[in-house]
Amino acid sequence: MKISVDRDRCEGYGVCAEVAPDLLHLDDDGELVVDVEDLTPEQTETAASAARVCPVAALSLRDAG
Amino acid sequence: MTIASAPPHSDVDLFSDEVLLDPYPVYARLREMGAAVRLDALDRVWALTRYDHIRAADGDWQTFSSDASVGLNEVINARLVGSILGSDPPWHDKLRAVLMAQLSPRSIRRITDYVEEAADRLVDSLVERGRFDAVPDLATVLPLTVVFDLIGLPESGRGNMIRWADAMFTIFGPLNDRTRAGVQIIPEMYEWLGTLQAEDLRPGSMGRSIFDVAGEQGFDHHQCVKLLATYVTAGMDTTINAISNAVALFAEHPDQWDAVRADPGLIPSAFNEVLRYESPVLAFARRVTRDVVIDGVEVPGGDQVVLLFGSGNRDERHYPDPDRFDVRRNPVDHLSFGYGIHTCAGQALARIEGHAILRALSERIRRFHTGEPKRHLNNVVRGLESLPVEIET
Question: What Gene Ontology molecular function terms does this protein carry (chain A) (predicted)?
């Protein structure tokens, strides 16, 4: 699985990065960066939590490939 | 999914003084009855009581429309036509982009130092006094100062703004005495805002930027004034009550205050918990655009649903032991800012203000001893009128 960011929706709250600091972070400009391309099953679970807490529902999980 | 033969319903008036004074036992009963409970006191209105269903409704604007539907009376809904709160995409997205250019976390973080310093100065002056009223002397001061500065508004409206913002929120309720009184007050605010031209707003301010982009966005003066009103009123009662509620809660739970003082890293979690425990906005409505089945109950298309954020935040199905105030809980997914396309546009600013105040207080004050709080009743906002405090440093 991969984390997909809807850039039109993302407003840069960074709540996802608080929940999944190993998978996502805000860069110096406050833009969201996805740090892990292909998620392990364990990471997928964390990523799902991160997607769930996004205030603007900008994150989703997509099948890799 | 089976359809229940008789949908759950209740004759409770969620906007009566009795319920507003202590809504949580009533919310708990409604949550027990069902995720969607029809309210007999209103015409074709349902309460959404549980966390999952409120969040799902907030996340589905196509089914749960805001278009002239966020309030529970026709006066407010007519007024909200075309506003950011009372519209759906694509018009909504255009207005939101204008606000977010100024209010997004990326844009707003540059003012963090300014807010931190303002919080330090304010708390220093209160510590010197030793006793004060946490509502007018503390909670009201920071948001009012910050919002007027950021929007670049002239000082002439400052003395009335709290009363105007309170009226702007209360009129989202059904047409009761509070709403009728609020409706009388609102024109005063628009009269004042309506006199403002671009040059009355400080250059480089958020307010001025609305007028700056008006040409390219095709906004007329009236639309600029409406956006100004959104900016200024949304940032008042909400943050003010969050701060008052925080002081009341930490006075009541000294062990939780000790925990924050011992570990300032808990401040963001503690602020989330304050917002979960006492949602400043208790409820907004939506209108279902088609027949929907909610937890086995059919809600007919065209009916309104009231999203009871204050109930969802206390839903035992989502938060274990929900009536316990716990600064370590970090409920990042609380409903107090809403969710989805209408999620609070000012939440990054609210967090900066809330964190700054909690930090400034926790660095200086060991204990709050509070006198009898006086609740301020508003149809949709939960807050205090007065909270006498004596502090130990």
Answer: 3 iron, 4 sulfur cluster binding; electron transfer activity; iron ion binding
